[in-house]
């Protein structure tokens, strides 16, 4: 699949072998080293990639929208052309099963095509024209026109748990390219071979479409210097990151300390509370419990939307839920986790919960041999949860904590004490509506997505999706990393006052470009020349 010394650094149109340290994939199921060894980039490689990205900004963003959309579709086609080699390599490097990775490839291709449609539509430009009013009194109004422009080169960090959909050609890269921003990707060290296969597909699409070579580069880092240097480079205008809270906040500090600070859109930590209401528990508590366990262990619990916290009022309904969940969890096999480091962190988090005097063990999944995570379910009281911030920490994997509440006031207090979250799942029946209603304003302050009678493990890539939330679930709770709104992270508005029509961007000339949405004098219309 790869030569002995692969040309894994894709610096614009140039492919070269790295020379700084070694990045080697590990077979997740066995812990064995995978061939070949990939080598890291040097500071000179980083400088070259950023220089090419900076040179590509203006010519890339000046392309017709149709050309940009066609480029995204070409990336999708090239990824599909890799065929089964991509799935086989990703399976080895991550331990994820074939159906999951084939589905993730479909999602990756789907979001590229979604953003191609977003680009063609032009709504993301937010075109606005307020025509001059020279006769207005007491003061005339100048001609004012606005559009969104790309912020500039974007640094993207591949994620460990989604080697395709949140990696080299994942949501951050796709939305940045759709916005008109060149991208420099730092490959994740856990899946270097998968990253190179996809990176070559993107680089080939750049060449296929005749784009400036600096539109895309892929770098590897054998330590932390390249990733840190990428964020610190003055030519980088924004950062997309999915990973740990520690990693995300470290990048945020580097970005804030620059002479010109830049935004870091980091998706980090979330325990995704599940609130069970009495009528729903009484009617179908056992069914909810089985669905909960299915969500908890999905992908070995390695989803950012994993249901890590369950909140409910004491009573027979909750007791029945816990009993059914314990039964379902007890037969779940231990699962291969993505990396030895993730498994070690998971085992440490579970051990800390088990050692907490205020926490009881409800059930453990079946034990397994090798580098596998054993699912775990714990319980505590609302008073203990509110008194111990350690119980609020994410355990990345198939572990969850049930918080027993004395009454609705405890439920509200527990929710109010939580940090920002990606999701909150509410299990309710019609008889629970009065109990749910007063909690909705609180939940809107705490989470990015509110779900009813379902779990957040599974994100639809569409226009109405929000995959973000208040800190620390994401660095900027006003943003999303999934769905068409993700493009807004990499745009900024520019206003033109009395600029001659001959000098205006094409989409702002006259009354607005034909067939593009424009807000003209406050009314949203399709632009046309009158």
How would you describe what is shown here?
The structure is a single chain. This protein is an alpha/beta fold. Helix content is 37%, strand content 21%. The chain has 15 helices and 23 strands. Helix 2 packs antiparallel against helix 4, helix 3 packs across helix 4 and helix 3 runs antiparallel to helix 6.
Global shape? globular
Q: Quick check: average pLDDT?
A: 96
Tell me roughly what share of residues is in helical segments.
25-40%
What class would the helix/strand composition place it in? alpha/beta
Please render the helix and strand layout as text:
Elements: E1 9-11, E2 14-16, E3 20-26, E4 33-40, H1 43-61, H2 65-82, H3 84-94, H4 98-121, E5 127-130, E6 144-150, E7 154-157, H5 171-179, E8 183-186, H6 192-208, E9 216-219, H7 225-232, E10 238-242, H8 245-257, E11 264-267, E12 273-276, H9 278-297, E13 309-313, H10 316-330, E14 335-336, H11 340-355, E15 360-364, E16 372-373, E17 376-381, H12 382-387, E18 399-405, H13 408-417, E19 421-427, H14 433-436, H15 440-446, E20 447-452, E21 491-497, E22 517-520, E23 523-526
Parallel strand pairs: 5-22, 7-8, 7-10, 8-9, 10-11, 12-13, 12-19, 13-18, 17-18, 19-20
Antiparallel strand pairs: 1-2, 1-9, 3-4, 5-6, 6-21, 14-16, 15-17, 22-23
Helix pairs in contact: 2-4, 2-6, 3-4, 3-6, 4-5, 9-10
